[in-house]
Amino acid sequence: MDPRGGESMTVIRAQALENAGRVISDAAAIFSKLTPRESAQRIWTPGGLSLDELTDRITASRAAWEGSDTLALD
Questions:
Q1: Contact criterion met (CB below 8 Å) for 55 and 63
Q2: Is the pLDDT assigned to residue 74 strictly greater than 50?
């Protein structure tokens, strides 16, 4: 057995990636049903971008996403 983890680390990593994919997919499903403003209100944090800036970025990201087969990330 490899003391650094070897095969067991590969399994743990694969499971972690699968779990992360599920979380991201679930979040995307929730946010896709919200307006850009509602999405901005959910992700806004003090000291970060304003609600208007977040709303604009979400709107632009969704516009770029429409008709595309890749996720638009800025």
A1: no
A2: no
* DSSP one-letter string for 14-59: HHHHHHHHHHHHHHHHHHHTS-HHHHHHHH--TTS--HHHHHHHHH
Amino acid at position 5, single letter? G
Report the Cα–Cα distance between both ends of the chain, in Å, rounded. 43
User: What's the token pair of residue 38?
Assistant: 């509602």
**pTM score:** 0.62
42: which residues sit within 8 A by CB, 6+ positions away?
31, 34
Distance (Å, whole) CA 33 – CA 50: 21
Give pLDDT tens digits for 23-49. Answer: 999 998 999 899 999 999 999 999 999
